[in-house]
Amino acid sequence: MAGPEGPSVPGAPAALWKRHIVRQLRQRDRTQKALFQELVPAYNHLLEKAELLAMFSEKLQLERSNVTSVLHEGSWEEESRADSDGVCSPANLKVKWQEEEEALQLVCGEMAYQVVEKSAALATQQLQLQEEQGRLEALEAQVAQLQEARAQLAQQVEEQRAQNVAQRAAYEDLRVQAGNQEATLRRLQEEAGHLLERLVQLKARAAVEHNLRLERWERASQAWVSQELKKAAKRTVSISEVPESQGKGIRESTETLALAAELDSMAPEACEKWKRPFRSASATSLTLSRCVDVVKGLLDFKKRRGHSVGGIPEQRYQSIPVCAAAQLPVQAQDVLDAHLSEVNAVCFGPNSSLLATGGADRLIHLWNAVGGRLEANQTFEGAGGSITSVDMDPSGSQVLAATYNQAAQLWKVGEAQSKETLSGHKDKVTAAKFKLTRHQAVTGSRDRTVKEWDLGRAYCSRTINVLSYCNDVVCGDHIIISGHNDQKIRFWDSRGPCCTQVIPVQGRVTSLSLSHDQLHLLSCSRDDTLKVIDLRLSNIRQVFRADGFKCGSDWTKAVFSPDRRYALVGSWDGALYIWDVDTGKLECTLWGPHCAAVNAVAWCYSGSHVVSVDQGRKVALWH
Length: 623
Description:
Blueprint: H1 12-36, H2 39-85, H3 90-234, H4 244-256, H5 258-263, H6 268-271, H7 288-304, E1 332-337, E2 343-348, E3 354-359, E4 364-370, E5 373-380, E6 387-392, E7 398-403, E8 407-412, E9 420-423, E10 429-434, E11 440-445, E12 449-454, E13 459-465, E14 470-475, E15 479-484, E16 488-493, E17 499-504, E18 509-514, E19 520-525, E20 529-534, E21 539-544, E22 558-560, E23 566-570, E24 576-580, E25 586-590, E26 598-603, E27 610-614, E28 618-622
Antiparallel strand pairs: 1-28, 2-3, 3-4, 4-5, 6-7, 7-8, 8-9, 10-11, 11-12, 12-13, 14-15, 15-16, 16-17, 18-19, 19-20, 20-21, 22-23, 23-24, 24-25, 26-27, 27-28
Helix pairs in contact: 2-3, 3-7
């Protein structure tokens, strides 16, 4: 059997706790023994004195009985003898015996009192000992319970270790599988990219070949028409003299030219070539150049209308005039507590004087920027949740807002009630923007979808599923750009089903802003940077940073100036930062009325003033 210091054996934990209990019991014995060490000698000494006193009492009783008998028998002899011999008389002995008896009684009383006290102390100590024994038994029971619990916990620990080992092995297997799948995914993405490039090349080649066939067919048609028209122009026909057999040929040729004859009247110089023997006779002739122009016009019209001559062209908004050079803001001219709680979004209308703000109080306010002041115009109520995004269409007649109520709502300027509710998302709608074509809009949500809407019917025409939830969207001619929480910007072709491109950035994307010429994209992200992306080369052209600038929230909005010369954003400390896009230099930092984080900024289309909103309910107009 191994000693306490021996090597570890399976029974070693049991021996350790046994030795621990023995040490605890010995320590308890030493502690309690110290309390009784003084009491035991005193008690022993008291017992010795009690025995001695009992012996003295017995001796005194015997002596007293002897003395009494002696006194009764020969008191006179002793008195005479004492008187004669000079010894104490019995009276003196009696007095002396009484004194000694009183002294002994006092000593016995004191010793009896001490015996009582010691007995009481002993009883108290016995009670304490019984209590300590009870506590010891309770502690021993608790120790036994704890030992059982410890054994159970040790067993659970062993089971958990076994599970951890199994899970670690499974994790390693899954990690290896994930690595293999990632490699396969990268390979498939590369193959998809190559296939997409090949498809684009094939489509381009097919388009070139189709155009060549159309051109050849057009040239052949023009040549045939020219030849037929030359033949028809050289002939002189008299209706009265034409035989029946030749009339069919003339009617056939006339039918071939019916469309051209309906589009143009008879040329005067060509009418002289016809002979009119009767008043009721009539004929139609077209010059060669006029017919060619008519055919070209028909072909051009067909090309303009698309692949089908009867196709309906898309209705687009008129282009918004943009200033040639934006003016840098210098100071805040007007500051208002516009909402009941924080303001999340702001947007200018196309006339640069009307702007809309939306906040967490579920209200949208329209303002007129007149003479450096903000004047209240209209308030839209009825939103189902906090407003996260506001946009005005290029005509300035409609306002589209994204809400926390899993929907976007459409209002018409001048009307109090909401015009349409675009419902279909399953989580908060974080962005809602109008497209450049009429009656169309795009929304992004935290349910990891981007939806296209037909506003005329309040119908979702397309749903795009994404791997990460969307924070902002912008729309171009035929492209939709979305910024996501997984630090990526995705590009979608509105005419195709798939994502055309992904650009990774550092940090969660909080906002996107597309330049007026649709050649540059400005993104703001939670790594406290702004990035300018050149859409022609699909690369990051500039990265803007500044000491003190910090993105205040996941919905902080940054914008281009109308002329794309500057980039503007608000910081967590209430300051506005403006960079020069071409040089990358921090142009200026504006401090003003904002004491809370700036959520959004907007630059009017005329370039003359800027509006900023913050989490402290303030709206500031800068000029």
